[in-house]
Amino acid sequence: MVNFLCAIVYYCLTPRGTKINAWFGKKLGEFKFNAYIRYYMLSYYDLTFFSIMKLTQGDPEPITNSRKMANIASYVILVGSVVIPFLLSVLICNRFPYFKVKESKASFNTLIVKLDKGRRLRIISPIFFFIRRFATAVMLTVPLDSKLIFL
Fold it and tell me: How far is the C-alpha of 19 from the C-alpha of 105, rounded, in Å?
């Protein structure tokens, strides 16, 4: 919501070349990347868990179009739960040399908050975040009578 408010103020309400327009332009540049990734990180576990739950439950005999669409959406969400974090980790690793420059790392501060950017190995915590959430979602959907539950 704040992203759209900044965009309206930047493009419509402030004259070009003023200080307030430049300030809103800077804030809009930060929001372009950070707000959506932070929202995805918050909803990642829920999306993954419910898509796995839908795929592991047995469908009743009358298969309707809405159940087919729910299965397709579950497959898309599950594939996205694997692909999107991989793409984010590739993006973070590709942008790593720019994190040492203060102006260029401003757009990535929300994604890698308070991480030591001294070595590339230290930026593994966002990757570990997604792996841990995915494994938790998978383990919570394992049936209680399965032998995997005791591993």
Answer: 22
Supply the DSSP symbol for 60. Answer: P
130 exposure class (CB count in 10 Å sphere: 0-12, 13-18, 19+): buried
Residues of the chain with pLDDT under 70: 1-4, 6, 10, 29-36, 59-60, 99-120, 122-123, 148-151
Q: How many CA atoms, within 13 angstroms, populate the side-chain half-sphere of residue 141?
A: 19
- The span from the CA of 136 to the CA of 151, in Å, is 14
Full-model pTM: 0.64
Alpha helices (runs of H) in the chain, residue ranges in sequence order: 2-8, 19-56, 65-94, 102-105, 125-140
Task: Report the pLDDT value the prediction gives residue 73, as an integer from 0 to 100.
Answer: 92
Note the Cα 48 to chain centre separation in Å: 12
The C-alpha atoms of residue 24 and residue 11 are separated, in whole angstroms, by: 9
Extents of the domains making up the chain: 36-150
